[in-house]
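Propose amino acids for all 110 sites.
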């Protein structure tokens, strides 16, 4: 079952952008939450079933992205047991001194 913070519009939008572009820059706190969401979505996608695709689609809101995550990205991490994304601290925002971080998908499993 998906947690409430996965259903918030901001987290859904950031998960959508992460799957679409491969990386997202946001505050460090939001980046850590997004990392857990993305890792759970890839773990669900590794099941390779219709039920898994529908669960992914309920979070991302797009059938095309659900298929991309399930067939392209999940097969890339088939041998990896976790840690599909990484959080890298990039800079401090000048206006309010908030630490910004970039969430990226890890390279293919070695």
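Proposal:
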């Amino acid at each position: 079952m998906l947690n409430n913070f996965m259903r918030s519009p901001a987290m859904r939008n950031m998960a959508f952008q992460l799957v679409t572009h491969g990386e997202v820059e946001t505050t460090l706190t939001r980046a850590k939450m997004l990392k857990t969401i993305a890792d759970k979505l890839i773990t669900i996608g590794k099941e390779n079933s219709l039920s898994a695709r529908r669960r992914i689609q309920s979070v991302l809101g797009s059938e095309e992205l659900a298929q991309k995550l399930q067939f392209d990205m999940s097969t890339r991490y088939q041998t990896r047991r976790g840690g599909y994304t990484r959080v890298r601290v990039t800079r401090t925002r000048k206006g309010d001194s908030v630490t910004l971080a970039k969430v990226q998908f890890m390279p293919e499993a070695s």
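The beta strands are 23-27, 85-92, 99-105. The chain has a mean pLDDT of 89.
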